[in-house]
Every structure is written in structure tokens, then in C-alpha cells.
Amino acid sequence: MSQFIPLITSTSITEQSAWLSALNEAAKNIDEAQHEQIIKIVPFTELNEAQVSETEVAIVANPNPEALRQLPNLKWVQSLWAGVEHMVKNLDQSVSIARMTDPQLAATMAEAALAWTLYLHRDMPLYRKQQTERHWQGYDAPLPEQQTIGILGLGLLGEKAALKLKQNQFNVLGWSRSKKKLPEFNCLYGDDGLQEILKRSNILIILLPLTDETAGLINEERLQLMPKGASLINFARGPIVDDTALSEALECGHLKHAVLDVFEVEPLPVESPLWSHPSITILPHISAPTNKTTASKVAVNNVRTYLKTGTLPPVVDRTKGY
Fold first, then answer.
1. N or C: which end of the chain has fewer CB within 10 A?
2. Cross-strand bridge partners of residue 39
3. Catalytic residue at 304?
4. Which one is catalytic: 86, 222, 285, 318?
5. 312 pLDDT tier (thresholds 50, 70, 90)
């Protein structure tokens, strides 16, 4: 007999349908391999009163907290996304949160980190500008090992991105809030470490979770610590970077370029001055889209394990926010 697991999401009907299809396909394949049928994922609205009362786990993507509060025995939620800051703020403390830790997500982010680092390393914004001006001129390209890439955030995404860049001969530094040791590259931590990595980074990549401590972290003072002519990539969350301070640092020539994939308001409003800033490349939050097939396998496996053994996957530390 199947166990019904609700999917609770504020995404579009089309997106919800795609997730339901991927999740149930993953459940079917896993159940067949195990010669048992355990899980069926359904929209929250399809649960009957008894099922609502019995539900201990839900699969979620940017859920409405009010919907989750209708589940009186909810113990934990499995997020389909890596970012969980809204749930950390809005869910009852009694509900544990498991963020999506899909190895494919980390691989996709590492690919994006390399791609957009190369975009800046090889001065693609300049050549694009020259194209619009019909101006033909080449410039010497620095060697990768002459460029220091700073990674803020050494979780799974940050670590994989740093390794990918290291494999491509860039000089890599990593930073985290607390001490972390990784043999492949130098790791800095704390306030002193943050100042050092900012001072040394030719390209700074932000891969931090959004917490009370990281909101506004990259402000005017810290941007001024970066070398003149440095660039910045934000793949984390928009509020981590002060947009006004960033624009000013670009306009005065202290920073050369910024690649922004995340914003405080998304989609980025059409009236935002960031769209037309000549030294900013705008991306529509595409650096590491969740792969529905691989993420569904992770989610279903975590739920199955819990139903069979009572064991939760690693969950968010509410005191840290990630």
C-alpha cells in the first residue's frame, strides 16, 4: 500500500505538474528496484482529512507556510531547492528542514563558476562592447595561474566550484564563516580571513547562503578592499551584495565588471537601473537550475529512508540559517 506524500509549492501549475511527474517516476523506479511500493507524491490539495492528519513529511519548493501549518503532525520537509532562507524564517521551529543536496546541482554550479570566470578572465564584456562599436582590437590574455579567484562559501557548491577552477589552473582561495580545511586550496575564515580574500581576489564568486550575518555582507567598505580592476560574480542571493555600493564601485572604475544571477526582487523589475549598466551582466537566476530527474531521486530516497527507519537526512541548523 502506498504512502501519500504531499508536494507543497508556490510555483506554477505547469512547474508543479513537471515536479510531480519527475518525483513519481523516481519513486516508481526505486520501488521497483526494491520490490516494494511505498511512496506516491500528490498535490497537497488532494490529501483527505485523515492523510493530512497523518502526514509527517512533505516535499516542498518555496511553500506557503500557511499550507504547512495545516499539517498538525509535520516533522520535517524536504526542499527541492538548495536555498531555504524563507522557510528558516517562516516555519515553526518544530519542523526540520532538509535542503536539496544533489551532487548534480553542485556539478552544474561548478560549471557555471568556470564559465563565467572564463568570461571575465578573457575579457568578454570588453569584446562585446567593441563589437557594438565595430572596433577591431585584441589584447594580451593573462594566464589562469595569474588570476586569484576568491570563493565566498565553502559548502558543497562552493567546494565543487573551487575544485573546478583549480583544475583549470586558476589560483583559488576559499572563505567560510568558521574554520574549514580542504587540501586542494587555501581556506580562510572569520573577519580577518574575509578581509584577506577580498584584498587578494581578482574575481570574487559569492556562493553563501542568505542569513542575518550574510545580508549586506558585501558593502561599500568591503568592495573597496578588492583590488582595482577586480570583478564580482554573485550566484548566491541578491541581498548579500549592496547594489548601490556595487554600482558606485563600477562607475568610479574601482571594479571592472559584475555578473549578477540573483537579485533582491526576482524577476528583476524592468525599471531597475541594473539592466542598462554597461559594466553589469544580468542573468535570470540560471547559474545552477535544479535538475528535476536527479533532485527527485535525492528527495525520494530521503523520504523512503525516513519512512523505513525514522532517520532524517542532514537538516538545517536554525541557529546558523543553513
1. N
2. 3
3. no
4. 285
5. very high
Cβ neighbours of 169 (radius 10 Å): 12
Separation of CA 175 from chain center: 16
Strands 3-9 and 57-61: parallel
Q: Which residues pair with 192 in a beta bridge?
A: none
* Residue 264 near residue 242 (C-beta atoms within 8 A): no
User: What was the pLDDT predicted at 33?
Assistant: 64
Q: Is 283 exposed, middle or buried (0-12, 13-18, 19+ CB in 10 A)?
A: middle
Which single residue is written with the C-alpha cell 522557510?
Answer: 87
61-104 pLDDT, tens digit per residue, is 989 989 999 999 999 999 999 989 989 988 989 999 999 999 99
Looking at beta carbons, which pairs linking 223-229 to residues 24 or more positions away fall under 8 Å? Answer: 223/249, 223/254, 223/255, 224/249, 224/254, 225/195, 225/198, 225/199, 226/198, 226/199, 226/201, 226/254, 226/255, 227/199, 227/200, 227/201, 227/202, 228/253, 228/254, 229/202, 229/255, 229/256
15-to-11, 97, 101 alpha-carbon distances in Å? 6, 22, 20
- Single-letter residue type at 270: V
Provide φ and ψ at 168, rounded to 5°: -100, 25
Task: Kindly list the domain boundaries of the chain, sorted by start residue.
Answer: 3-102+290-309, 104-282
- Whether 3-102+290-309 shares its CATH topology with 104-282 is answered yes
Is the pLDDT score of 308 beyond 80?
A: yes
Give pLDDT, residue 128.
97
Homologous superfamily of domain range 3-102+290-309 = NAD(P)-binding Rossmann-like Domain (3.40.50.720)
Separation CA 254–CA 273 (nearest Å): 19
User: Which of the following is catalytic: 177, 237, 257, 277?
Assistant: 237
Residue 285 annotated as catalytic: yes
* Superfamily of structural domain 104-282: NAD(P)-binding Rossmann-like Domain (3.40.50.720)
